[in-house]
Amino acid sequence: MTTVPSSIPDKPRKAVALISGGLDSLLAAKVMLDQGVHVEGINFFTGFCVEGHTHAIRQKDRAKPKRNNALWVAGQLGIKLHIVDVIDEYKDVLLNPSHGYGANMNPCLDCKGFMVRKALEWIQQNDFDFIITGEVMGQRPMSQRKDTMPVVARESGAGELLLRPLCAQHLPETLPEREGWVDREKMLDFSGRTRKPQMALAAEYGFTDYATPAGGCCFLTDANYSRKLVDMWQARGNREYELDDLMLLKVGRHVRPNERYKLIIAREEGEVKFMQGYAYRYPTFKVTSHSGPIALLDGTPNEDDFEFAARLVARFSKGRTADIVTVEQSMPGREKLIEHKIQPLPASEIPEDWYI
Amino acid sequence: MTHYQLDARRLLCPMPVIRTQDRIAQLQPGDVLQVTCSDPGAAQDIPAWSRINGHTIISIEHTDDELVISVEVGATS
After folding, report:
1. How far apart are CA A26 and CA A353, in angstroms?
2. Which of A10, A172, A261, A269 satisfies CB 3.0 to 4.6 Å to A301 for a cystine?
3. Cα–Cα distance measured from residue A292 to residue A316, given in angstroms and rounded to the nearest whole number
4. Residue A22 to residue A243: CA distance in whole angstroms
């Protein structure tokens, strides 16, 4: 066991904590605060974060109390939180992960390395001393394994400046421990996929109501989302994307009748409101003769496609069994609306594999 | 004290918070930033961010589809 210097530093050492909004990073930061370390939080917004977006869109979710969990964690800890937009920089992580993907489009190991590298840049710019994360050895199948945790430290460039308080006892000594900035003896030895030690520690600290997101905090771990993302890339013939693309993958039914275009059909009032904001950018269909959704058309359709799309949209309206339904079509940059009086597409003519 | 405006409409959280944070970093203590948002979640998130970072919410005004949040920049920014 390493001897910990007993000398007290002149001023509190400063650490930045990667705060996802989950329990582990909450606890890791708390453990450091208890050792007298000055901690501030940092949260990276990649565009794929489950936090916020979808919950803000769907009407049914608005009834639930909505909060940003990273902000909630910072509030519980009484620390500052810096939220950093990394949407553009993250593209390279997603598109060219040197360690590949997990079960879906999740490049978890590269992602963790990227975030720790960004945190390293941040501490260098802000005169902080080290970085802490809530990682637990064996907790995640890709980025939090005994063999991959050193990879994150090495490839991020953080090296010995990266301290994982929840499982530090299982890891080689880091600079903060060796220098006595923190007491290694008070670090923890959590490991494995069980959440019981974290829950017990949370209870000890009196933390309740913390977030326990099923499937983690990233849409890229979600099979349905990943499928829609890959479909978008394939249809466009390239893997470019913008934040608006990522948000639209989170809403509506996505239906692709052919390789030229897909329809994004609102499922409820919250999505209708949200998608109306995109009429400036996409051809938009709205059923006017009956109660029904709006739909955005994404792609490069031919003239026949528009009428077919209107029939498809009508299928999802209250007029689905009517002989004739009126569907209004708007085009970006044009004031004049196009009116389709069409027969809704029968359900039997919508193959299951059109649904992305 | 100077008043500034920030248009964060059509942005979903956490983007309104990020834009608010980045704009406030350029302002002086006592300045007021008026943020217009369309994401109802901003009514919780911007005050939460302001509270932990030492800024003060002066008012939150709701209209049909938008809200306007006025933040006074604190001394700790």
Report:
1. 42
2. A261
3. 7
4. 23
B64 inside 8 A of chain A by CB? no
Domain ranges across chain B: 3-60
DSSP letters along A271-327, please? HHHHHHTTTTTS-EEEE-SSS--EEEEEE---HHHHHHHHHHHHHTSTTTTSS-EEE
Choose the weakest-confidence range: A62-66, A140-144, A230-234, A291-295. A62-66
Burial category of B25 from C-beta neighbours within 10 Å (exposed 0-12, middle 13-18, buried 19 and up): exposed
Stated pTM of the model: 0.89
Residue in chain A closest to B39 (alpha carbons) equals A56
- Check CB contact of B21 with chain A, cutoff 8 Å: yes
Exposure b/e, B49-77, CB count within 10 A at least 16 = b: bbebbebeeeebeeeeeebebebbbeeeb
In whole angstroms, give the CA distance from residue A294 to residue A279. Answer: 10
Option in B13, B18, B48 nearest A56 (CB): B13
d(CA A191, CA A136): 6
Q: Do A83 and B17 touch (CB under 8 A)?
A: yes
**ipTM of this predicted structure:** 0.93
What CATH class is the domain B3-60?
A: alpha beta
